[in-house]
Amino acid sequence: MTEKSGPGSLTFNFHEGSRSEYLAQYVFSSFGTAIPVPHQEDTGLDIYCTLLEREGRLAWPRAYYSVQVKSTMDPWVFNGRNSVRWFIEHPLPIFLCIVQKAEARILVYHTTPRFAVWTMPELPERLELILGTETKAVTSSWAWDGPINLGAPILDFTISQILDTAKIEEVKSVLKFWIKFDVENLVRIKNGIQQFKVPSDYETNKTKLTGMVTQGVWRFREDTFPLAKARLIELLWLVATYYDYTNDMVSAVIYAMALRQLQPSYELGDLHPSLHHKLNELFGFEPGKQGNYLYKPCDLLLQMVKDELARHPARSSRTFRLGETVRSARGRLLINTIDNNTNDPDGPLGTTRGWADCGPAR
């Protein structure tokens, strides 16, 4: 029978977990601020941190991240779709820290697979992250379903080592390296882009970038397409307006045409009218004359493009078998990871379940 804690006692495992969090807070405070979450407010992450950079007599936070602390190498498991969604959509980079108290050793793991899960057509009911102890790992080998092996830790050091200033800077550089990719991928989530980028491989305690992997799906989910479209419309508006004000008429009109295609019914403020007034002057369309309207030149140009494309029907695209590896026109390998052997283009995942560009870093 399990003995329950009562007045005057506490659970031993709970105390050991708290000791791990104390040690982790001390370690991460070496790189910047490290604010622990009170146990009664703990919803899944233990420490909120910054990386500080010194400028003269002042220290400035230059990067923000969060840490989950564990004292064992047991998998990190998320049960339930809401729990998985929380993990994926958390607005900060997340690192998993293992405190091995007997050796006074710290292992830190990235959690980039959260972005791989984000790209799935449907979020899973369960996510399991398995920890490895090797010193090198390949990110593009992650499974699309089932447990995900995190592979090698990104950091492995002893607590005594971070008493050395050079080691502190080394650890900070590794954290900054991974934070950069997490922040970029979080921006993609916020903009409905079901795609992520990550270093193709890495080595513990190193920041060498040998290549990048891009994975994702071309078929938007119902919750992501409207968001991606709205962000694109906003950007097209800004870019078209920029080219208008810098007197690059050709570029401004091209982006305005794309905007008109995406949003046939403009709302007030969607695009500065000066560009369309200029187009009306170029086309000789008099304002107020019957049949003329503000966007008529843009609509005519857009229709010309559509008519020309209609004269040249697109060829049917080629699909690939499961696991087939092909070489792109630029000579880099594309690893096709579609989800079924029939490669049904109308299936739930589309013809491009995921792909990895394993070319050299640029």
Principal-axes geometry comes out as elongated
What's the mean pLDDT score?
84
What share of residues is helical?
25-40%
Q: Radius of gyration over alpha carbons?
A: 26 Å
Uncertain runs are: 329-359
Report strand order across the widest sheet: 1-2-3-5-6-10
- Put simply, the count of helices is 8
Structural class: alpha+beta
The rounded distance between the terminal residues' Cα atoms is: 60 Å
| Total domain modules | 2
Report strand %.
15-25%
Oligomeric composition of the shown chains: single chain
Topology as a string of helices (H) and strands (E): HEEEEHEEHEEEEHEEEHHHHEEE
Q: Mind summarizing the main beta sheet? A: 6 strands, mixed
Number of DSSP strands? 16
Summarize the structure.
This protein has 362 residues and is α+β, with helices and mostly antiparallel strands.
List its traits:
6-stranded mixed sheet; 362 residues; single chain; alpha+beta; 2 domains
